[in-house]
Write a structure and sequence with these properties.
The chain is α+β, with helices and mostly antiparallel strands. The protein contains two helices and eight strands. The radius of gyration is 30 Å and the shape is rod-shaped. The two termini are 26 Å apart.
């Protein structure tokens, strides 16, 4: 009896289809993880306020930072305080600006910024009463994505999903036909 081709056996086709479909799910979940804000920058702040504009901090971002940046600020000072956040691009131009006001005591705020393009720096300027001191923490969360890698993950996930579903459908269809053929063969044997 001649050997059957690998894909002529419906069970093999179902196994390959299931494997490809599970692989596509894995690739999709990895693409979501890859593009999620999984990087974190924690900046401890302990800054005495002066009268001039020297009350600033600068945070440099790595190359390829995503356009959405999440922040969490926890600060304390004795007097009112104004916090200005400036996102700067490669040329030093301001891409986005945000002003946060704080009364005396502690200040907590969470949120996110959606920028037009990837920032290079964050400049934080504190304005308040001279001789006051600002203490606290600022946490920034962001994604760092290579667009080519994300595109390859997405396309590969889509292709493996389509092939996986095709093999599954072909395998299940072949299995059902094979079982129906066996059932009819047994029925004919009983009649004769």
């Amino acid at each position: 009896m001649p050997k059957k081709h690998f894909f002529r056996n419906p069970k093999n086709t179902i196994i390959v289809g299931t494997f490809l479909f599970v692989l596509s799910l894995f690739l999709s979940f990895y693409a979501m993880y890859y593009s999620s804000p999984r990087f974190e920058c924690i900046k401890k702040i302990s800054l005495p306020l002066a009268e001039d504009s020297a009350n600033e901090l600068r945070i440099e971002f790595p190359k390829g930072v995503g356009e959405r940046i999440y922040y969490s600020i926890n600060l304390t000072s004795n007097y009112d305080l104004q916090i200005k956040l400036y996102f700067l691009d490669n040329d030093g131009r301001v891409m986005s600006e945000s002003i946060l006001e704080k009364g005396n005591g502690s200040f907590r705020k969470r949120g996110s910024f959606l920028l037009d393009r990837s920032p290079l720096f964050l400049r934080i300027v504190f304005k308040g009463v001279p001789s006051d001191r600002v203490n606290g923490t600022m946490i920034l969360r962001y994604s760092q994505v290579d667009i080519l890698t994300l595109a390859v993950l997405s396309v590969t996930g889509t292709i493996t999903s389509l092939f996986g579903m095709g093999f599954l459908a072909f395998g299940v269809y072949g299995y059902l036909i094979e079982k129906e053929f066996e059932r009819r063969s047994e029925k004919k044997k009983k009649i004769t």
